[in-house]
Amino acid sequence: MTNPIALIVDDEPDICELLEITLGRMEITTRSAADLTQAYALLEQEQFDLCLTDMQLPDGNGITLVEQISRHHPELPVAMITAHGNMESAILALKAGAFDFVSKPIDLQILRQLVETALKLHKPKPALPQTSPPVASANEPQLLGQSSAINNIRTMIAKLARSQAPIYISGESGTGKELAARLIHAQGPRAEGHFIAVNCGAIPHELVESEFFGHKKGSFTGAISDKEGLFQAAHGGTLFLDEVADLPLGMQVKLLRAIQEKSIRPIGAQQESTIDVRILSATHRDLAELVKRGEFRQDLFYRINVIELHIPALREREGDIELLTEHLLTRLAIKGGRPKTDIEPSAMKALRSYPFPGNIRELENTLERAVTLCEGNRVTVEDLQLPAQSATGEGDPDQPLEAYLGDIEKQAIIKALEETRWNRTAAAKKLGISFRALRYRLEKLGLD
């Protein structure tokens, strides 16, 4: 095995020497260029495994080099060296296709972590045996569908997996935003690290900082031992911030600093510790609108929204209902240890015509209920219990008013519970009612 080769592009001799020594100790061969012209010439002569470039060069901007490499050498990860605190340049580089960035003065620990992660992109993945299409698994996440919308998502995920840029995943509730985040992690160089998912809306405000950054024993009442935070748990891997819009403003400031500085300080600690974490975030809410209303920090919004991945609603995925239904029925059979349930053509037709405001999560819940209710291991239209749809796609108001309002209330509560992963305290807060009121409604509607 030959040593990896890195291209260093910087006109400061001291920086070049520092990078050459550091990479040399990692058994990486280096080639140096003082400007864009020399860099382009070296790119034509050799195949590189990594490129590190300064932002300001004598004959142009490092962004130009990033764009050139993205077009002509898409397999080559390139990292930008930026001035300290110049996050605008770092974000521009990431949007242009940079793998990651490192700030001056260069923290050698951060640099080594960046290099190690980048080189993993060139490690050949083990070949998969050529077999028939995979059987549905009860646990393995899969992005199913053949619609153009879902094929575009697959292509985007493959590209985003090669970058370390923060990704903002938008989309309605139940569309599979966490699944997309898991796939970005699994297909990237951090796949061997931890994937830590956290629902930001389900953490009590007074515990948010401790949950994210950890704390030292005795740092506050109740801190009876040292506690590792989510950032430490995700070190070397990916931290997925679900429902990031629910973070309190005070925590948004601290999160922004942690992302920018790539370091955190646990509560009660005297020193900061370096973190190596990729940030993915998601919410079903309109973050841009929340920024306008002053409910979400604009600087944090721009930092986590370097690249946006929008997950389409189920109603926008024409032709995928049948495939998803078959997969979910197979998974339910595996999970329940029983033969797969069939579905009548009329029931499948009903599923195709229903708009599924709750998206894939609603489809899954509908099928799980239908499989439980059906007779003879065959799902009928009646077993689906789909809400009646008017011409406008809304629920049918011709039923008795009390029942109609009860259905609306029931759907609102189920949605809030699903969005908070069935955390009743967080769901009550989302609904704007007390915990006691929510408990009463759950009992009244038979959801307890």
Give the helices and strands, then pairings.
Elements lengths: L4 E5 L3 H13 L3 E5 L2 H10 L4 E5 L1 E2 L2 E2 H11 L5 E5 L4 H10 L3 E4 L4 H13 L27 H14 L5 E4 L6 H10 L8 E5 L8 H6 L16 H4 L4 E5 L6 H13 L1 E2 L8 E2 L3 E6 L3 H6 L5 H7 L2 E4 L9 H17 L5 E2 L1 H9 L5 H15 L4 E2 L1 H4 L16 H19 L4 H8 L3 H10 L4
Parallel strand pairs: 1-2, 1-3, 3-6, 6-7, 8-13, 8-14, 9-10, 10-13, 15-16
Antiparallel strand pairs: 4-5, 11-12
Helix pairs in contact: 6-7, 13-15, 17-18, 18-19
Characteristic terms for this protein:
448 residues, 5-stranded parallel beta sheet, globular, 13% strand, alpha/beta
Characterise this structure:
The structure is a single chain. The longest helix is centred in the last third of the chain and has 19 residues, at 401-419. It is built from 19 helices and 16 strands. The chain has helices spanning 13-25, 36-45, 62-72, 87-96, 108-120, 148-161, 177-186, 208-213, 230-233, 249-261, 287-292, 298-304, 320-336, 345-353, 359-373, 381-384, 401-419, 424-431, 435-444, and strands at residues 5-9, 29-33, 50-54, 56-57, 60-61, 78-82, 100-103, 167-170, 195-199, 238-242, 263-264, 273-274, 278-283, 307-310, 342-343, 378-379. The protein has 448 residues and is an alpha/beta fold. It is globular and about 75 Å long. It has a five-stranded parallel β-sheet, with helices on both faces. It has a five-stranded parallel β-sheet with strand order 9-10-13-8-14. The model is unreliable at 124-139 and 390-394 (pLDDT under 50). α6 packs across α7 (177-186), α13 crosses α15 (359-373) and α17 packs across α18 (424-431).
